[in-house]
Amino acid sequence: MKEKLNRYFILLDFLMVLVIYVTVESITFKFSFEHIKDPRLITLFIEIAVIKICINYIFKIYNKIWALASIEDLLSLAYSFIFSNSIIYILVIVGLIEFTVLKLMAVMFLEASGYLASRFFLRYYFYFKQKRNNKFNLKNTLIIGAGKAGDLVYRDVTRHQELYMLRVIAFLDDKEYKIGKTLKNIPILGPFKNIEKIIREKNIQVVIVAIPSLSKKALSNMINVLATLPIKTKVLPRLEDIDNRYDINKVRDVHIEDLLGRDTIDLDDNGILEFIEGKTVLITGGGGSIGSELCRQIVSYKAKEIIIFDIYENGAYDLQQELLRTIEKNERLNTEIKVLIGSVRDLNRLEEVFTEYKPEIVFHAAAHKHVPLMEHSPKEAVKNNIFGTYNTAITAIKHDVDKFVLISTDKAVNPSNVMGATKRFAEIIIQTLQKRGRTNFSAVRFGNVLGSSGSVIPLFKKQIKCGGPVTVTHENIIRYFMTIPEACQLVLQSGAFATGGEIFVLDMGEPVKILDLAEKMIRLSGYTPYEEIEIKFTGLRPGEKMYEELLVSTQNHKTANERIFVEENGVVNLDLEKKLDEISNDYKVLLDLVEFNLVIN
Questions:
Q1: Three-class SS of residue 498?
Q2: CA-CA distance, 515 to 520, in Å (whole number)?
Q3: Among this protein's residues, is 588 annotated catalytic?
Q4: If DSSP states are collapsed to H, E and C, what string results for 243-254?
Q5: Taking the C-alpha atoms of 274, 276, 279 and 282 in order, what is their torsion angle to the nearest 10 degrees?
Q6: Which is the catalytic residue, given 411, 423, 520, 545?
Q7: pTM (2 decimals)?
Q8: Is residue 300 domain-shared with residue 417, that is, in the same domain?
Q9: Coil/strand/helix, residue 103
Protein backbone atom coordinates (compact mmCIF):
# COMPACT_ATOMS: atom_id res chain seq x y z
CA MET A 1 0.00 0.00 0.00
CA LYS A 2 1.38 3.35 -1.06
CA GLU A 3 2.22 5.60 1.91
CA LYS A 4 0.45 8.91 2.18
CA LEU A 5 2.58 11.91 1.23
CA ASN A 6 3.34 14.38 3.99
CA ARG A 7 2.03 17.61 2.46
CA TYR A 8 3.20 19.66 5.39
CA PHE A 9 6.84 18.75 4.82
CA ILE A 10 6.52 19.52 1.10
CA LEU A 11 5.32 23.02 1.92
CA LEU A 12 7.88 23.43 4.72
CA ASP A 13 10.82 22.33 2.54
CA PHE A 14 9.69 24.55 -0.34
CA LEU A 15 9.50 27.64 1.87
CA MET A 16 12.74 26.72 3.66
CA VAL A 17 14.75 26.46 0.40
CA LEU A 18 13.23 29.68 -0.88
CA VAL A 19 14.02 31.59 2.33
CA ILE A 20 17.59 30.21 2.48
CA TYR A 21 18.41 31.30 -1.09
CA VAL A 22 16.86 34.72 -0.53
CA THR A 23 18.75 35.13 2.76
CA VAL A 24 22.14 34.11 1.31
CA GLU A 25 21.61 36.41 -1.66
CA SER A 26 20.66 39.32 0.61
CA ILE A 27 23.79 38.82 2.76
CA THR A 28 25.87 39.50 -0.35
CA PHE A 29 24.29 42.96 -0.53
CA LYS A 30 24.63 43.62 3.19
CA PHE A 31 21.07 42.47 3.93
CA SER A 32 19.64 44.73 1.28
CA PHE A 33 16.59 43.23 -0.42
CA GLU A 34 16.53 45.68 -3.37
CA HIS A 35 18.39 43.20 -5.55
CA ILE A 36 16.00 40.41 -4.58
CA LYS A 37 13.06 42.22 -6.16
CA ASP A 38 14.33 41.17 -9.59
CA PRO A 39 11.55 38.84 -10.95
CA ARG A 40 14.14 36.69 -12.75
CA LEU A 41 15.98 35.99 -9.49
CA ILE A 42 12.76 35.13 -7.62
CA THR A 43 11.74 32.85 -10.48
CA LEU A 44 15.17 31.15 -10.33
CA PHE A 45 14.88 30.50 -6.61
CA ILE A 46 11.36 29.10 -7.04
CA GLU A 47 12.61 26.81 -9.81
CA ILE A 48 15.49 25.58 -7.60
CA ALA A 49 13.03 24.90 -4.74
CA VAL A 50 10.75 22.95 -7.10
CA ILE A 51 13.72 20.89 -8.37
CA LYS A 52 14.70 20.00 -4.83
CA ILE A 53 11.12 19.05 -3.90
CA CYS A 54 10.91 16.81 -6.98
CA ILE A 55 14.19 15.08 -6.13
CA ASN A 56 13.01 14.57 -2.55
CA TYR A 57 9.84 13.08 -3.98
CA ILE A 58 11.86 10.68 -6.15
CA PHE A 59 13.83 9.59 -3.07
CA LYS A 60 10.48 9.09 -1.23
CA ILE A 61 11.42 11.58 1.45
CA TYR A 62 7.77 12.53 1.85
CA ASN A 63 6.67 8.95 2.42
CA LYS A 64 8.59 8.73 5.68
CA ILE A 65 7.06 8.83 9.16
CA TRP A 66 9.49 11.36 10.59
CA ALA A 67 8.09 11.10 14.10
CA LEU A 68 9.64 7.61 14.10
CA ALA A 69 12.69 8.45 11.98
CA SER A 70 15.50 5.90 11.74
CA ILE A 71 19.09 5.96 10.45
CA GLU A 72 17.83 4.55 7.13
CA ASP A 73 15.42 7.49 6.79
CA LEU A 74 18.21 10.01 7.46
CA LEU A 75 20.42 8.29 4.87
CA SER A 76 17.66 8.65 2.28
CA LEU A 77 17.43 12.34 3.11
CA ALA A 78 21.22 12.68 2.81
CA TYR A 79 21.26 10.97 -0.61
CA SER A 80 18.52 13.28 -1.87
CA PHE A 81 20.33 16.32 -0.46
CA ILE A 82 23.65 15.38 -2.10
CA PHE A 83 22.01 14.54 -5.43
CA SER A 84 19.97 17.76 -5.66
CA ASN A 85 22.88 20.00 -4.67
CA SER A 86 25.18 18.21 -7.12
CA ILE A 87 22.78 19.15 -9.89
CA ILE A 88 22.67 22.77 -8.71
CA TYR A 89 26.48 22.79 -8.47
CA ILE A 90 26.83 21.55 -12.06
CA LEU A 91 24.38 24.20 -13.26
CA VAL A 92 26.41 26.86 -11.43
CA ILE A 93 29.72 25.60 -12.92
CA VAL A 94 28.41 25.58 -16.49
CA GLY A 95 26.94 29.05 -16.01
CA LEU A 96 23.25 28.22 -16.31
CA ILE A 97 22.66 29.63 -12.83
CA GLU A 98 24.18 32.94 -11.81
CA PHE A 99 25.34 31.92 -8.37
CA THR A 100 28.77 31.61 -6.84
CA VAL A 101 30.17 28.38 -5.36
CA LEU A 102 30.73 30.18 -2.05
CA LYS A 103 27.05 31.12 -1.90
CA LEU A 104 26.12 27.55 -2.77
CA MET A 105 28.26 26.22 0.11
CA ALA A 106 26.45 28.57 2.50
CA VAL A 107 23.10 27.45 1.09
CA MET A 108 24.02 23.77 1.55
CA PHE A 109 25.02 24.33 5.18
CA LEU A 110 21.79 26.16 6.02
CA GLU A 111 19.70 23.70 4.03
CA ALA A 112 21.20 20.66 5.81
CA SER A 113 20.61 22.35 9.16
CA GLY A 114 17.02 23.11 8.19
CA TYR A 115 16.28 19.55 7.08
CA LEU A 116 17.70 18.06 10.27
CA ALA A 117 16.13 20.63 12.57
CA SER A 118 12.65 20.19 11.13
CA ARG A 119 12.82 16.37 11.21
CA PHE A 120 14.35 16.06 14.67
CA PHE A 121 12.01 18.66 16.10
CA LEU A 122 9.03 16.56 15.05
CA ARG A 123 10.60 13.34 16.31
CA TYR A 124 11.47 14.71 19.73
CA TYR A 125 8.20 16.59 20.01
CA PHE A 126 6.31 13.32 19.76
CA TYR A 127 8.87 11.52 21.95
CA PHE A 128 8.54 13.97 24.85
CA LYS A 129 4.80 14.21 24.38
CA GLN A 130 4.48 10.41 24.65
CA LYS A 131 6.89 10.33 27.59
CA ARG A 132 4.82 12.94 29.39
CA ASN A 133 1.65 10.94 28.75
CA ASN A 134 3.34 7.67 29.76
CA LYS A 135 4.49 9.19 33.03
CA PHE A 136 0.96 8.82 34.32
CA ASN A 137 0.63 5.23 33.02
CA LEU A 138 3.88 3.75 34.37
CA LYS A 139 3.41 0.92 36.85
CA ASN A 140 5.14 1.14 40.22
CA THR A 141 7.71 -1.64 40.28
CA LEU A 142 9.64 -3.37 43.06
CA ILE A 143 12.80 -5.35 42.24
CA ILE A 144 13.52 -8.16 44.70
CA GLY A 145 17.29 -8.52 44.88
CA ALA A 146 19.64 -5.53 45.26
CA GLY A 147 22.62 -7.32 43.73
CA LYS A 148 24.22 -7.47 40.29
CA ALA A 149 21.14 -8.98 38.65
CA GLY A 150 18.81 -6.45 40.27
CA ASP A 151 21.04 -3.60 39.09
CA LEU A 152 20.99 -4.92 35.52
CA VAL A 153 17.21 -5.26 35.58
CA TYR A 154 16.88 -1.69 36.90
CA ARG A 155 19.12 -0.27 34.18
CA ASP A 156 17.27 -2.12 31.44
CA VAL A 157 13.83 -1.12 32.72
CA THR A 158 14.91 2.53 33.08
CA ARG A 159 16.56 2.62 29.65
CA HIS A 160 13.45 1.22 27.94
CA GLN A 161 10.82 2.75 30.18
CA GLU A 162 8.48 3.60 27.31
CA LEU A 163 8.62 -0.05 26.17
CA TYR A 164 8.10 -1.77 29.53
CA MET A 165 5.86 0.96 31.01
CA LEU A 166 7.45 0.34 34.43
CA ARG A 167 8.86 2.73 37.04
CA VAL A 168 11.20 1.18 39.63
CA ILE A 169 10.54 2.87 42.97
CA ALA A 170 12.30 0.46 45.34
CA PHE A 171 14.53 -2.58 45.73
CA LEU A 172 13.97 -5.28 48.35
CA ASP A 173 16.67 -7.40 49.93
CA ASP A 174 17.04 -9.65 52.98
CA LYS A 175 20.66 -8.71 53.67
CA GLU A 176 20.70 -6.40 56.69
CA TYR A 177 23.73 -4.38 55.53
CA LYS A 178 21.83 -3.37 52.37
CA ILE A 179 18.51 -2.44 53.96
CA GLY A 180 18.18 1.34 54.36
CA LYS A 181 20.80 2.13 51.73
CA THR A 182 20.22 3.08 48.10
CA LEU A 183 21.11 1.61 44.72
CA LYS A 184 21.10 4.08 41.83
CA ASN A 185 19.39 6.51 44.25
CA ILE A 186 16.55 4.03 44.67
CA PRO A 187 15.85 2.93 48.29
CA ILE A 188 16.57 -0.65 49.37
CA LEU A 189 13.80 -1.96 51.60
CA GLY A 190 13.41 -5.22 53.47
CA PRO A 191 13.28 -7.87 54.67
CA PHE A 192 11.03 -10.07 52.52
CA LYS A 193 8.75 -10.91 55.45
CA ASN A 194 7.51 -7.30 55.21
CA ILE A 195 6.61 -7.67 51.53
CA GLU A 196 2.85 -7.26 52.02
CA LYS A 197 3.30 -4.03 54.00
CA ILE A 198 5.82 -2.66 51.47
CA ILE A 199 3.55 -3.40 48.52
CA ARG A 200 0.62 -1.72 50.23
CA GLU A 201 2.52 1.39 51.38
CA LYS A 202 4.39 1.91 48.09
CA ASN A 203 1.38 1.04 45.93
CA ILE A 204 3.43 -1.58 44.06
CA GLN A 205 1.82 -3.00 40.93
CA VAL A 206 4.65 -5.13 39.51
CA VAL A 207 7.33 -7.20 41.26
CA ILE A 208 10.42 -8.53 39.45
CA VAL A 209 12.31 -11.30 41.26
CA ALA A 210 15.97 -10.78 40.29
CA ILE A 211 17.86 -13.33 42.40
CA PRO A 212 19.01 -15.96 39.86
CA SER A 213 21.02 -17.80 42.52
CA LEU A 214 17.85 -18.91 44.35
CA SER A 215 17.13 -22.62 44.64
CA LYS A 216 13.92 -23.92 43.08
CA LYS A 217 12.41 -24.42 46.51
CA ALA A 218 13.31 -20.91 47.71
CA LEU A 219 11.96 -19.37 44.50
CA SER A 220 8.78 -21.41 44.86
CA ASN A 221 8.26 -20.25 48.44
CA MET A 222 8.73 -16.63 47.36
CA ILE A 223 6.40 -16.96 44.36
CA ASN A 224 3.70 -18.60 46.47
CA VAL A 225 3.78 -15.63 48.86
CA LEU A 226 3.64 -13.14 45.98
CA ALA A 227 0.78 -15.11 44.41
CA THR A 228 -1.45 -14.13 47.33
CA LEU A 229 -0.92 -10.40 46.70
CA PRO A 230 -2.66 -8.12 44.15
CA ILE A 231 0.40 -7.66 41.91
CA LYS A 232 1.84 -8.90 38.64
CA THR A 233 5.02 -10.93 39.16
CA LYS A 234 7.95 -11.48 36.79
CA VAL A 235 11.07 -13.59 37.29
CA LEU A 236 14.69 -13.57 36.18
CA PRO A 237 15.35 -17.33 35.82
CA ARG A 238 17.89 -19.17 37.93
CA LEU A 239 21.49 -19.07 36.66
CA GLU A 240 21.59 -22.80 35.94
CA ASP A 241 18.54 -22.36 33.69
CA ILE A 242 20.22 -19.62 31.60
CA ASP A 243 23.70 -21.14 31.17
CA ASN A 244 25.12 -19.29 34.22
CA ARG A 245 24.87 -15.92 32.48
CA TYR A 246 22.91 -12.86 33.52
CA ASP A 247 20.56 -12.07 30.66
CA ILE A 248 17.98 -9.34 31.13
CA ASN A 249 16.11 -10.53 28.04
CA LYS A 250 15.26 -13.69 29.97
CA VAL A 251 12.98 -11.87 32.44
CA ARG A 252 9.65 -13.67 32.07
CA ASP A 253 6.23 -14.18 33.55
CA VAL A 254 5.92 -16.72 36.35
CA HIS A 255 5.57 -20.30 35.13
CA ILE A 256 3.40 -22.76 36.96
CA GLU A 257 6.57 -24.81 37.59
CA ASP A 258 7.80 -21.92 39.75
CA LEU A 259 4.85 -22.45 42.07
CA LEU A 260 5.60 -26.15 42.52
CA GLY A 261 9.30 -25.65 43.23
CA ARG A 262 10.28 -29.30 43.01
CA ASP A 263 13.98 -29.92 43.54
CA THR A 264 16.26 -31.22 40.80
CA ILE A 265 16.05 -34.99 40.37
CA ASP A 266 19.12 -37.05 41.19
CA LEU A 267 19.43 -39.63 38.44
CA ASP A 268 21.68 -42.62 37.98
CA ASP A 269 22.93 -41.36 34.64
CA ASN A 270 25.32 -44.28 34.25
CA GLY A 271 22.46 -46.72 34.72
CA ILE A 272 20.28 -44.92 32.16
CA LEU A 273 23.22 -44.66 29.75
CA GLU A 274 23.79 -48.40 30.01
CA PHE A 275 20.06 -48.92 29.41
CA ILE A 276 19.85 -46.66 26.31
CA GLU A 277 23.28 -46.21 24.69
CA GLY A 278 23.70 -47.90 21.34
CA LYS A 279 20.13 -49.27 21.32
CA THR A 280 17.31 -48.92 18.83
CA VAL A 281 14.41 -47.37 20.72
CA LEU A 282 10.80 -47.28 19.53
CA ILE A 283 8.39 -44.76 21.08
CA THR A 284 4.71 -45.23 20.26
CA GLY A 285 2.81 -41.96 20.42
CA GLY A 286 6.22 -40.39 19.91
CA GLY A 287 4.81 -37.07 18.74
CA GLY A 288 2.73 -36.50 21.87
CA SER A 289 3.54 -34.59 25.04
CA ILE A 290 5.24 -37.46 26.90
CA GLY A 291 6.49 -39.33 23.84
CA SER A 292 8.23 -36.28 22.36
CA GLU A 293 10.02 -35.44 25.62
CA LEU A 294 11.14 -39.06 25.95
CA CYS A 295 12.67 -38.74 22.48
CA ARG A 296 14.51 -35.53 23.44
CA GLN A 297 16.02 -37.14 26.51
CA ILE A 298 16.83 -40.45 24.83
CA VAL A 299 18.90 -38.56 22.23
CA SER A 300 21.14 -37.25 25.02
CA TYR A 301 21.79 -40.83 26.17
CA LYS A 302 23.26 -41.73 22.76
CA ALA A 303 20.68 -44.17 21.43
CA LYS A 304 21.69 -45.73 18.14
CA GLU A 305 18.31 -45.04 16.55
CA ILE A 306 15.02 -43.50 17.65
CA ILE A 307 11.83 -44.57 15.91
CA ILE A 308 8.98 -42.11 16.38
CA PHE A 309 5.81 -44.12 15.75
CA ASP A 310 2.65 -42.02 15.64
CA ILE A 311 -0.65 -41.72 13.80
CA TYR A 312 -0.39 -37.91 13.80
CA GLU A 313 2.19 -36.95 11.19
CA ASN A 314 2.55 -33.20 11.86
CA GLY A 315 3.67 -33.50 15.47
CA ALA A 316 6.03 -36.37 14.62
CA TYR A 317 7.57 -34.45 11.72
CA ASP A 318 8.12 -31.30 13.81
CA LEU A 319 9.79 -33.39 16.51
CA GLN A 320 12.03 -35.11 13.98
CA GLN A 321 13.26 -31.75 12.66
CA GLU A 322 13.89 -30.51 16.21
CA LEU A 323 15.90 -33.62 17.11
CA LEU A 324 17.94 -33.42 13.91
CA ARG A 325 18.88 -29.82 14.74
CA THR A 326 19.90 -30.89 18.24
CA ILE A 327 22.09 -33.68 16.88
CA GLU A 328 23.65 -31.39 14.27
CA LYS A 329 24.71 -28.91 16.97
CA ASN A 330 26.27 -31.58 19.20
CA GLU A 331 29.15 -33.49 17.66
CA ARG A 332 29.03 -36.23 20.30
CA LEU A 333 25.52 -37.25 19.20
CA ASN A 334 24.91 -39.38 16.12
CA THR A 335 21.49 -40.91 16.76
CA GLU A 336 19.42 -41.71 13.66
CA ILE A 337 15.87 -40.37 13.77
CA LYS A 338 13.06 -42.15 11.92
CA VAL A 339 9.41 -41.14 11.76
CA LEU A 340 6.97 -43.95 10.97
CA ILE A 341 3.28 -43.27 10.59
CA GLY A 342 0.92 -45.92 11.88
CA SER A 343 -1.52 -46.96 14.57
CA VAL A 344 -1.01 -49.36 17.47
CA ARG A 345 -4.44 -50.72 16.54
CA ASP A 346 -2.95 -52.06 13.30
CA LEU A 347 -1.19 -55.32 14.14
CA ASN A 348 0.10 -55.75 10.58
CA ARG A 349 1.71 -52.30 10.60
CA LEU A 350 3.38 -53.05 13.93
CA GLU A 351 4.69 -56.31 12.52
CA GLU A 352 6.20 -54.46 9.54
CA VAL A 353 7.91 -51.92 11.80
CA PHE A 354 9.34 -54.46 14.26
CA THR A 355 10.52 -56.73 11.44
CA GLU A 356 12.36 -53.95 9.59
CA TYR A 357 13.81 -51.91 12.47
CA LYS A 358 14.20 -54.54 15.23
CA PRO A 359 13.76 -52.24 18.26
CA GLU A 360 15.46 -53.34 21.47
CA ILE A 361 13.51 -51.00 23.76
CA VAL A 362 9.87 -49.92 23.46
CA PHE A 363 8.24 -47.03 25.31
CA HIS A 364 4.50 -47.37 24.82
CA ALA A 365 3.08 -43.85 25.18
CA ALA A 366 0.30 -44.06 22.57
CA ALA A 367 -3.07 -43.73 24.30
CA HIS A 368 -6.32 -41.83 24.52
CA LYS A 369 -6.01 -39.89 27.77
CA HIS A 370 -8.85 -37.36 28.07
CA VAL A 371 -11.31 -38.60 30.68
CA PRO A 372 -14.48 -36.71 29.57
CA LEU A 373 -13.93 -37.51 25.88
CA MET A 374 -13.48 -41.21 26.53
CA GLU A 375 -16.73 -41.31 28.51
CA HIS A 376 -18.46 -40.40 25.26
CA SER A 377 -16.28 -42.63 23.05
CA PRO A 378 -15.64 -45.72 25.19
CA LYS A 379 -15.12 -48.10 22.27
CA GLU A 380 -12.29 -45.93 20.95
CA ALA A 381 -10.64 -45.96 24.37
CA VAL A 382 -10.86 -49.76 24.45
CA LYS A 383 -9.46 -50.12 20.92
CA ASN A 384 -6.52 -47.80 21.54
CA ASN A 385 -5.62 -48.24 25.19
CA ILE A 386 -6.33 -51.96 25.58
CA PHE A 387 -5.97 -53.57 22.17
CA GLY A 388 -3.28 -51.11 21.10
CA THR A 389 -1.25 -52.09 24.16
CA TYR A 390 -1.88 -55.80 23.57
CA ASN A 391 -0.88 -55.55 19.89
CA THR A 392 2.34 -53.70 20.69
CA ALA A 393 3.21 -56.02 23.58
CA ILE A 394 2.71 -59.33 21.73
CA THR A 395 4.68 -57.96 18.77
CA ALA A 396 7.48 -57.03 21.17
CA ILE A 397 7.50 -60.58 22.57
CA LYS A 398 7.55 -62.07 19.07
CA HIS A 399 10.58 -59.97 18.11
CA ASP A 400 12.51 -60.50 21.37
CA VAL A 401 12.45 -56.87 22.49
CA ASP A 402 14.62 -56.45 25.60
CA LYS A 403 12.47 -53.99 27.54
CA PHE A 404 8.92 -52.71 27.15
CA VAL A 405 7.84 -49.73 29.30
CA LEU A 406 4.15 -48.80 29.46
CA ILE A 407 3.28 -45.18 30.25
CA SER A 408 0.36 -45.42 32.68
CA THR A 409 -1.60 -42.97 34.81
CA ASP A 410 -2.83 -42.37 38.34
CA LYS A 411 -6.34 -42.70 36.92
CA ALA A 412 -5.70 -46.45 36.66
CA VAL A 413 -5.90 -46.64 40.46
CA ASN A 414 -9.42 -47.64 41.56
CA PRO A 415 -10.68 -46.39 38.18
CA SER A 416 -13.98 -44.54 38.11
CA ASN A 417 -14.01 -43.84 34.39
CA VAL A 418 -13.49 -45.56 31.04
CA MET A 419 -10.04 -44.08 30.44
CA GLY A 420 -8.76 -45.15 33.85
CA ALA A 421 -10.22 -48.63 33.44
CA THR A 422 -8.58 -49.11 30.05
CA LYS A 423 -5.21 -48.01 31.40
CA ARG A 424 -5.53 -50.35 34.38
CA PHE A 425 -6.32 -53.20 32.00
CA ALA A 426 -3.27 -52.20 29.94
CA GLU A 427 -1.18 -52.64 33.11
CA ILE A 428 -2.71 -56.10 33.60
CA ILE A 429 -1.84 -56.99 30.00
CA ILE A 430 1.86 -56.31 30.47
CA GLN A 431 1.92 -58.04 33.86
CA THR A 432 0.28 -61.11 32.35
CA LEU A 433 2.51 -61.17 29.26
CA GLN A 434 5.61 -60.90 31.44
CA LYS A 435 5.43 -64.69 31.88
CA ARG A 436 5.32 -65.49 28.16
CA GLY A 437 8.67 -64.51 26.72
CA ARG A 438 12.04 -62.96 27.36
CA THR A 439 10.78 -59.36 27.07
CA ASN A 440 11.04 -57.39 30.30
CA PHE A 441 7.70 -55.59 30.84
CA SER A 442 7.06 -52.73 33.28
CA ALA A 443 4.69 -49.81 33.70
CA VAL A 444 5.27 -46.31 35.08
CA ARG A 445 2.35 -44.59 36.74
CA PHE A 446 2.18 -40.83 37.39
CA GLY A 447 -0.32 -38.01 37.64
CA ASN A 448 -0.95 -34.87 35.63
CA VAL A 449 1.93 -33.31 33.74
CA LEU A 450 2.22 -29.57 33.30
CA GLY A 451 1.79 -28.20 29.81
CA SER A 452 0.48 -31.34 28.14
CA SER A 453 -2.21 -30.81 25.52
CA GLY A 454 -5.64 -30.53 27.08
CA SER A 455 -4.36 -30.08 30.64
CA VAL A 456 -5.79 -27.51 33.03
CA ILE A 457 -2.80 -25.12 33.04
CA PRO A 458 -2.91 -24.08 29.34
CA LEU A 459 -6.70 -23.83 29.66
CA PHE A 460 -6.44 -21.44 32.61
CA LYS A 461 -3.85 -19.33 30.76
CA LYS A 462 -6.14 -18.95 27.73
CA GLN A 463 -9.13 -18.12 29.91
CA ILE A 464 -7.20 -15.47 31.85
CA LYS A 465 -5.86 -13.97 28.61
CA CYS A 466 -9.44 -13.74 27.31
CA GLY A 467 -10.59 -11.98 30.48
CA GLY A 468 -12.29 -15.00 32.06
CA PRO A 469 -14.20 -16.71 33.35
CA VAL A 470 -11.76 -19.33 34.64
CA THR A 471 -13.63 -22.63 34.90
CA VAL A 472 -13.05 -25.02 37.82
CA THR A 473 -15.11 -28.19 38.09
CA HIS A 474 -15.34 -28.20 41.90
CA GLU A 475 -14.03 -25.97 44.68
CA ASN A 476 -12.43 -28.92 46.53
CA ILE A 477 -10.95 -30.87 43.62
CA ILE A 478 -7.23 -31.67 43.96
CA ARG A 479 -4.62 -33.05 41.59
CA TYR A 480 -0.97 -34.10 41.58
CA PHE A 481 1.32 -32.30 39.13
CA MET A 482 4.73 -32.95 37.64
CA THR A 483 6.64 -31.30 34.80
CA ILE A 484 6.95 -33.26 31.55
CA PRO A 485 10.79 -33.35 31.64
CA GLU A 486 10.71 -34.49 35.26
CA ALA A 487 8.23 -37.28 34.50
CA CYS A 488 10.27 -38.49 31.52
CA GLN A 489 13.50 -38.50 33.51
CA LEU A 490 11.87 -40.79 36.05
CA VAL A 491 10.37 -42.97 33.29
CA LEU A 492 13.86 -43.56 31.89
CA GLN A 493 15.21 -44.28 35.36
CA SER A 494 12.35 -46.72 36.00
CA GLY A 495 13.06 -48.46 32.72
CA ALA A 496 16.68 -48.89 33.77
CA PHE A 497 15.56 -50.32 37.14
CA ALA A 498 12.98 -52.73 35.67
CA THR A 499 13.55 -56.46 36.10
CA GLY A 500 10.10 -57.53 34.88
CA GLY A 501 6.45 -57.09 35.86
CA GLU A 502 6.83 -53.98 38.04
CA ILE A 503 4.43 -51.09 38.22
CA PHE A 504 6.58 -48.10 39.13
CA VAL A 505 4.90 -45.21 40.91
CA LEU A 506 6.44 -41.74 40.81
CA ASP A 507 6.50 -39.43 43.80
CA MET A 508 4.30 -36.56 42.65
CA GLY A 509 4.92 -34.43 45.71
CA GLU A 510 2.11 -32.64 47.49
CA PRO A 511 -1.36 -32.51 45.91
CA VAL A 512 -2.50 -29.15 44.58
CA LYS A 513 -5.97 -27.72 45.11
CA ILE A 514 -7.12 -26.63 41.65
CA LEU A 515 -9.07 -23.64 42.99
CA ASP A 516 -5.94 -22.34 44.77
CA LEU A 517 -3.99 -22.83 41.56
CA ALA A 518 -6.55 -20.84 39.55
CA GLU A 519 -6.52 -17.99 42.09
CA LYS A 520 -2.72 -17.83 42.11
CA MET A 521 -2.50 -17.83 38.31
CA ILE A 522 -4.99 -14.97 38.15
CA ARG A 523 -3.08 -12.91 40.74
CA LEU A 524 0.28 -13.59 39.12
CA SER A 525 -1.21 -12.25 35.88
CA GLY A 526 -1.96 -8.98 37.65
CA TYR A 527 -5.71 -9.44 38.19
CA THR A 528 -7.95 -9.90 41.20
CA PRO A 529 -9.85 -13.20 41.39
CA TYR A 530 -13.65 -12.93 41.46
CA GLU A 531 -13.48 -9.18 40.80
CA GLU A 532 -11.51 -8.66 37.58
CA ILE A 533 -11.50 -12.34 36.55
CA GLU A 534 -14.49 -14.51 37.44
CA ILE A 535 -14.02 -18.10 38.63
CA LYS A 536 -16.90 -20.30 37.57
CA PHE A 537 -17.65 -23.74 39.02
CA THR A 538 -18.94 -26.10 36.35
CA GLY A 539 -19.41 -29.37 38.28
CA LEU A 540 -17.49 -32.63 38.02
CA ARG A 541 -17.41 -34.06 34.52
CA PRO A 542 -18.46 -37.63 33.70
CA GLY A 543 -15.98 -40.07 35.23
CA GLU A 544 -13.99 -37.36 37.01
CA LYS A 545 -12.73 -37.97 40.56
CA MET A 546 -12.52 -35.38 43.30
CA TYR A 547 -8.95 -36.56 43.94
CA GLU A 548 -6.50 -39.00 42.36
CA GLU A 549 -4.71 -41.90 44.00
CA LEU A 550 -1.25 -43.05 43.02
CA LEU A 551 -0.95 -46.40 44.79
CA VAL A 552 -3.41 -49.26 44.66
CA SER A 553 -2.28 -50.56 48.05
CA THR A 554 -0.50 -48.86 50.92
CA GLN A 555 2.34 -51.36 50.71
CA ASN A 556 5.16 -50.39 48.38
CA HIS A 557 8.89 -50.47 48.45
CA LYS A 558 11.52 -47.93 47.55
CA THR A 559 14.01 -48.13 44.75
CA ALA A 560 17.51 -46.68 44.53
CA ASN A 561 15.82 -43.40 43.57
CA GLU A 562 13.85 -41.76 46.37
CA ARG A 563 11.30 -40.43 43.85
CA ILE A 564 10.43 -43.88 42.45
CA PHE A 565 8.49 -46.63 44.21
CA VAL A 566 7.36 -50.09 43.15
CA GLU A 567 3.77 -50.98 43.84
CA GLU A 568 3.30 -54.23 45.71
CA ASN A 569 0.24 -55.54 43.93
CA GLY A 570 -1.08 -59.07 44.06
CA VAL A 571 -0.56 -61.46 41.17
CA VAL A 572 -3.19 -61.00 38.49
CA ASN A 573 -4.76 -64.32 37.48
CA LEU A 574 -6.70 -63.66 34.33
CA ASP A 575 -7.38 -65.58 31.14
CA LEU A 576 -6.17 -62.62 29.10
CA GLU A 577 -7.18 -63.63 25.59
CA LYS A 578 -10.60 -64.82 26.74
CA LYS A 579 -11.24 -61.56 28.55
CA LEU A 580 -9.99 -59.53 25.57
CA ASP A 581 -12.36 -61.47 23.33
CA GLU A 582 -15.24 -60.67 25.66
CA ILE A 583 -14.31 -56.99 25.75
CA SER A 584 -13.97 -56.81 21.96
CA ASN A 585 -17.53 -58.09 21.60
CA ASP A 586 -18.92 -55.77 24.26
CA TYR A 587 -16.83 -53.02 25.86
CA LYS A 588 -19.25 -52.95 28.81
CA VAL A 589 -17.58 -56.12 30.04
CA LEU A 590 -14.68 -53.85 30.99
CA LEU A 591 -17.02 -51.62 32.98
CA ASP A 592 -18.40 -54.69 34.75
CA LEU A 593 -14.85 -55.68 35.66
CA VAL A 594 -14.32 -52.25 37.13
CA GLU A 595 -17.62 -52.29 38.97
CA PHE A 596 -16.84 -55.63 40.62
CA ASN A 597 -13.27 -54.55 41.34
CA LEU A 598 -11.91 -57.45 39.28
CA VAL A 599 -9.61 -55.21 37.29
CA ILE A 600 -8.01 -54.06 40.52
CA ASN A 601 -7.51 -57.38 42.28
A1: coil
A2: 9
A3: no
A4: CCCCCHHHCEEC
A5: 160
A6: 411
A7: 0.68
A8: yes
A9: helix
